[in-house]
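Researcher: Last one for today. Full complex below.
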Amino acid sequence: AQSVTQPDARVTVSEGASLQLRCKYSYSGTPYLFWYVQYPRQGLQLLLKYYSGDPVVQGVNGFEAEFIKSNSSFHLRKASVHWSDSAVYFCAVSACAQGLTFGLGTRVSVFP
Amino acid sequence: DTTVKQNPRYKLARVGKPVNLICSQTMNHDTMYWYQKKPNQAPKLLLFYYDKILNREADTFEKFQSSRPNNSFCSLYIGSAGLEYSAMYLCASSWARGTEVFFGKGTRLTVV
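Model: Here's the assembly. Have a good evening.
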């Protein structure tokens, strides 16, 4: 069975600063990896996904993530955050026929 | 239109009473999912339909029922609600397991 660990429950950053959210997964095969964001009173929205190929994937709103197989990691990054990036971010892994397995999420608070 | 719609957005139920949640999608996706999300926990997959085939997670097998009368609609049914069922219920759909999954805004169920 697969699992996802997001070690940081909360992250606070200043507007304009860079952001990195950590994600480590456990899966014996080749995973499909995702980052979702949940804004207040909204459903989950896909930020980016990795299936294969270039390990650095670009997503919406300036987010990117890097797949490092040797470290079983899929960290999310943004060079300069905006107050509207305040949300909960979920890392997820998908294995064939088993749906998405999510991490606990990281709540990001951006202060002006 | 890549929306998944859930009704209602908020639902109040009494302990011991049945609950039925509705989800629809217009993307003709072959797979529809139901997740349960509680505060400070990861979204948890309850069950999913691949076409007409229902797959339920082992630890929630007896707690939730579902039906998919056609490709666009899927319901989640709780026969007798308990306090522990209070949560956000997220419906999602995709073309096939392991590809991009689209989420609805969720139904917040409160059992009293």
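The CA atoms of residues 37 and 43 of chain B lie 4 Å apart. Chain B has one domain: 4-111.
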